[in-house]
Write a structure and sequence with these properties.
281 residues, 10 helices, 7 strands, binds magnesium ion, Transketolase, five-stranded parallel beta sheet, alpha/beta, Transketolase_N, thiamine pyrophosphate, THDP-binding, Rossmann fold, two-stranded antiparallel ribbon, single chain
């Protein structure tokens, strides 16, 4: 197993960035951001072949589309710390005229953002279009997406899933953040999702389950497995089991921190649990 300490250090720093961003403006979505930190850190620093100098077309690069745009705090932190824009710009999160809108948008021109997202259910459709364009252009790179599990209650997801398998979009890896929570409660209570593996397989996808979705080593293993399944005629789905609020004990175990910011005392405790590793912005 390769040494992944540098990724774990980055995870801790990104957690600090997340809670500091939302605390500064008393708004935003820390829970899902924290749950997906290990995934996005691993994706951008270990898996994807991408260029932080950024151009919108992304020809001959792997592409990522964040469909559950409300977890923008983790997305912005990972992009900044990968070199897409200055880390200091994280201090502008959700402020007037910022490029770091509460939900990512494209018209502010923030490097790394290729779609507006936040209105749930749309990212897979966009990613399928990008993946098909890559095939038409003879570009052999891969397109990645991330979705919340609650987002799967959107009908457009299943239209896209059906289209992707029927058209053999096999250069697409869509990851579902299976944390069992959404803004109003558990997914089981709000609208039960049933057996997601059976559902995606019935829609013609290959499916991988990563049980330890907050463990960078397990994520690397799962992503390698997923990459090996691409270009075999089917789109690939990763069911990534995570904990909402991971890494901050009082934010874990419920949906409570989906969309609220910590107060001063809670921020101090969250930071105490995640000591600075790479320097705060
Ligand atoms: Mg969820």
């Amino acid at each position: 197993m390769a040494d992944t300490q540098h990724l774990k250090d980055l995870v801790t720093q990104v957690r600090r960035d997340i809670v500091r961003q939302v605390h500064a403006v008393s708004s935003g979505h820390p829970g899902g951001s924290l749950g997906c930190t290990e995934f996005l850190v691993t994706l951008y620093n270990e898996v994807m072949d991408h260029d932080p100098s950024f151009n919108m077309d992304g020809i001959n690069e792997d592409l990522f589309f964040l469909s559950n745009g409300h977890i923008s705090p983790v997305f912005y932190s990972v992009l900044a710390r990968a070199g897409y824009f200055p880390v200091s710009e994280l201090s502008t999160f959700r402020k007037l005229n910022t490029r770091l809108q509460g939900h990512p948008t494209t018209h502010e021109g923030l490097p790394g953002v290729r779609i507006a997202s936040g209105s749930l259910g749309q990212g897979m459709s966009v990613a399928i279009g990008a993946a098909q364009v890559k095939k038409l252009n003879g570009d052999d790179k891969t397109v990645f997406t991330l979705h919340g599990d609650g987002e799967l209650q959107e009908g457009q997801i299943w239209e896209a899933a059906m289209y992707a398998s029927a058209n053999k979009v096999d250069n697409l890896i869509s990851t579902i953040d299976v944390n069992g929570q959404q803004i109003d409660g558990s997914t089981e209570q709000v609208l039960a999702l049933g057996d997601l593996r059976n559902k995606f397989e019935a829609f013609g996808w290959d499916v991988i389950t990563v049980q330890k979705g907050n463990d960078v080593d397990a994520i690397i293993t799962g992503m390698k497995e997923a990459m090996n399944l691409t270009r075999k005629g089917k789109p690939v789905c990763i069911l990534l089991h995570t904990e909402m609020g991971n890494g901050i004990d009082f934010m874990m175990g419920s949906h409570a921190w989906h969309g609220i910011a910590p107060n001063d005392e809670q921020l101090a405790e969250a930071l105490r649990q995640n000591p600075e590793t790479l320097g705060d912005y």
